[in-house]
Amino acid sequence: MATQRDYYEILNVDRSTGDEQIKRAYRRMAMRYHPDRNPGDKDAERKFKEAAEAYEVLADPQKRRRYDRFGHAGLRGMSMHDFGHMEATDIFSIFGDIFAEMMGGRGRGHRARRGASLETVIDITLEDVASGVEREIDFDRLDFCETCSGTGRKPGTEPITCATCGGIGQVEQAGLGGMFRMRTTCPACNGAGQVIRHKCTDCKGAGQMPKRRVLSVKIPPGIHTGQAVRVHGEGEPGNNGGPRGDLHVVVRVTDHQLFAREDDDLLLQMPVSFTQAALGAKVQVPTLDGREQLTIKPGTQHGTVFRIPDQGLPSLRTGHRGDLVVVLLVEIPRKLTSTQEKLLREFADTEDHDVLPESRSFLDKIKQSLK
C-alpha cells in the first residue's frame, strides 16, 4: 500500500494555519499545477489532484479535526472523493468558488452550497448492540429564520444593487505580478450582486437561527463504538437553495458489568469452586439473552476457555452472531469449616505433598513451650 503524504505538507502549511491561509495556499498550488497550464505533465497532474484532496479535508472543520487526531486512518468511512480517478472538471465542481475566480466565472454567492453536517453522540448498551435499538435524540442546529424565511431581510423590504460591483458579483484584480487580470468574488456582497439594507430584526440578517430538533434514529445491530449512523438531510440548511447537510450520530457502547467485547465475541470470566473444577459439574452461564448450561469436565484447570456458539453479538455486515467465550476462574475458599479442613487434609495425605500443620490455640502453644 502506497504511503499517503501529510496534507499539511502537500499544501506547504503548518497545523496552526487558519482557514483563509489554507485556501490561499491551495489556490496557489491549483493555479501552478493546473492541467491547462501543464499539458501532458503527469507529475503536475498528480500534484494538482493531491492538492485538491488535501484541501477537501483541511477546509472541512469536521474532517480536519479527525485528521489532526487520527491521521489518514481517521478519515476512513467518511465521505471522500476519489481524486485519483477524477478529471479536472470534476475537481472544478467541488471547488467551484476558487476556480470560478481563476476562470472568470460567477462568484460563490450565486452558487448553491450544501449546508454543514452535524455530529452528536449517544450511549447504548451491549443489549442494544445485540438487538438494535431506536432512540429519540435532540440536538441544536441552525435553521431558516421563520420571520424572514431565510432571506435575512426585514419582511416587506427588497435588497439593493451592490455599489461595489454594480450587481455583477465580481471585481477585477491584477494577478501574478500584473501579467494578467482575474476576477474575484466581490467582498462587499460576497458575490450576490445585492446587499440587504434592512436586515431582519430576529436573525440580524443571517437568515438562520439556532433551533432545537428532535427525531428518532434507528441504530443497527452489531454497531461498534466510534461508528456513526448518518441521517440524510438533518444537518444545517444550504445557501442559495443548496441541500441540507447530514446528521452523524456517533455511537458509544457503555461498559457491561459482566461481559467484555472482542469484535463480535463476548468474553465472560466465570468463577467456579475448586471442587466443581476437580470433580466436574453443570453450571448456568449468563448470556445477553438469558442463561446457557455449561458442562465442566472433571479435572478442568484454572483459565480453561469454553466457547458457546451464537451467544455473542451480530456482525454489522453479515448479521451472523459471534460466540460467548467463557474463561473459568477456579476460586479457592478463604475460610474452611473444621469438617472441610479435615477432609482436605485427608486428601492432601494421598497426594504426598507437604502442607502447613494444623494451627493450635494460643493456650496450647503456651503449654507446649513450658514443657
Describe the structure.
- The chain is built from ten helices and 15 strands.
- With 371 residues, the protein is of the alpha+beta class.
- A hairpin with a 4-residue loop joins strand 12 and strand 13.
Secondary structure blueprint with pairings:
Elements: H1 7-11, H2 19-33, H3 42-58, H4 61-70, H5 88-94, H6 96-103, E1 118-124, H7 126-131, E2 133-144, E3 160-161, E4 170-175, E5 180-185, E6 194-195, E7 208-219, E8 228-231, E9 247-253, E10 259-262, E11 265-273, H8 274-279, E12 281-286, E13 291-296, E14 305-308, E15 324-331, H9 338-351, H10 362-370
Parallel strand pairs: 1-9, 11-15
Antiparallel strand pairs: 2-7, 3-6, 4-5, 8-9, 10-11, 12-13, 14-15
Helix pairs in contact: 2-3, 5-6
Short description:
The protein is of the alpha+beta class and 371 residues long. It has helices spanning 7-11, 19-33, 42-58, 61-70, 88-94, 96-103, 126-131, 274-279, 338-351, 362-370; strands spanning 118-124, 133-144, 160-161, 170-175, 180-185, 194-195, 208-219, 228-231, 247-253, 259-262, 265-273, 281-286, 291-296, 305-308, 324-331.
List keywords for this structure.
371 residues, alpha+beta, three-stranded mixed beta sheet, 26% helix, 26% strand, elongated
